[in-house]
Design brief:
Keywords: Membrane, Transmembrane, Transmembrane helix. The chain crosses the membrane at residues 39-58, 65-86, 98-125. By secondary structure, the chain is mainly α. It has one domain (2-128). Helix content is 69%, strand content 0%. It has helices spanning 2-5, 9-18, 21-31, 40-57, 64-91, 104-128. It is globular and about 55 Å long. The two termini are 18 Å apart.
């Protein structure tokens, strides 16, 4: 429990919020009735992942895997909330995970896995840079 309290929560919230670019691009495309190439969501996801990995991997974050796990979960929660707010406004009815609560668990799991994978790569980047757990510090 102490490990969770010692995480850099403003950083986690910021990186999680950054990932909202992905659903916002989809919403804008839909509202403008524009269809982008199918690779756009994948490219955006890769860019977000790279940002997460570089930001944490180039820092001395003591717990990169746990930090990005919670970043992925933060994004999942924020995207569920965004969907719940915007879908009734844009389409006239509630859509997304809140409309089908059984979908909430898979959304959380998929984004937790995304965060774990990015966290593992950030940890690898730290190790390649010579940062070790005893060297890492949590700055507040």
């Amino acid at each position: 429990m102490n490990r969770i309290r010692s995480l850099q929560w403003p950083l986690i919230l910021g990186l999680g919020a950054l990932a909202l670019v992905r659903p916002l691009v989809s919403i804008i495309e839909h509202q403008l009735d524009v269809t982008g190439p199918p690779a756009v969501p994948v490219i955006i996801t890769l860019i977000i992942s790279a940002i997460w990995i570089v930001v944490i991997g180039l820092s001395k974050c003591a717990q990169p895997v746990l930090t990005l796990l919670f970043t992925g979960l933060t994004y999942a929660v924020l995207s569920i909330i965004l969907s719940g707010i915007l879908s009734p406004i844009l389409t006239g009815e509630l859509q997304g995970p809140l409309a089908m609560p059984i979908a909430i668990i898979p959304v959380l799991l998929i984004n937790a896995i995304w965060g774990l994978a990015a966290g593992g790569l950030a940890l690898l980047l730290q190790r390649l840079r010579g940062v070790r757990p005893r060297d890492a510090v949590e700055s507040r």
